[in-house]
Amino acid sequence: MHRDRHEAFAKQGIDKPMLQFAFSTVACPQWSLKEVIDQATAMGYQGIELRTLDSKDSPLANDPATMDLSEVTNLFAKTDIAPVCLSTSESLHDRDNAVIRTASKNIIKALDTAKAIGCPLVRVFGNEVLPGESRRIAMTRIIEHVKPLAQEAARRDIGLIFENSGSFADAKSWWTMFNVLEESSLGVCWNVANAAAINEAPAVSVPLLNRYIQLAKVKDTIIGEGTGYVPLGEGTVKIQNFIHRLMGIGFGGYVSVEWDKVWLPSLASSEEYLPQAKETLEAWQNQASEAIAAAQVKIDKAAAKLAPKPRRRAS
Known about the structure:
The protein is of the alpha/beta class. It has a single domain, classed as Alpha-Beta Barrel (TIM Barrel), CATH 3.20.20. The chain contains ten helices and ten strands. Helix 2 (33-43) links the parallel strand 1 and strand 2 (47-51). Helix 4 (97-117) packs parallel to helix 5 (135-155) and helix 9 packs across helix 10 (270-306). The relative contact order is 0.14.
């Protein structure tokens, strides 16, 4: 799963990869999947992060768990919109083996669903350090639970990605786990707002995780004030810097907009929020692209000055 990005883009003749934009269906719980795809097309998005609660009673009208999978596949086949990730609620931190067996069974089911609908990623959580235990013990237990699932994901050619949250909102925890396991199917869904909540900046997260970032997630809030979510750029989460740094490492994947209307119905309508978010992200992407291009010009000029001069032949 972790091919060198620069090599991949060079083979395609792409100098600087551009980001692709998606939104999570938590933003639009009442839309059918067809309506989600139609709205994404109209708003200029390229992908959809599909949230699933794995229940026929899901509050999401677009949850694949409530639909025939052939219908899901056919809907995406008729459009250029891509199913980016199947995002579950499953976590792997629990000490109870029965709970972990159930979670593992559900994750394998999600991997099969993703394979069936042509979705390349499945999102899960690490989640919490339980009371009375150390961080190291919790991470060791999660690693034990993850390895067989990573192998199941690899067999299906699906990426199994962990969203940073709870006790494991920092980059170092995930870098450690991925390097211990050395499983190519594993990666991270990096939620920049969750990292900001523990005061970890993109300047730390992005360079450390680099190739492990398979999906980027953005939402904005004013950290520490409890004011709830706000339009992108109106909070204190360093999303613009996050976008710049993603482009700096050659990330050409999806940035998914999260607007938690399924849990917080009083939020502004998705019809209002999602187009504005897309416009803001594109503006930041363009600014980052210009800054990177300007920096490259300076580097090239400096390299030319330092290059050895050709020797003159003796007459």
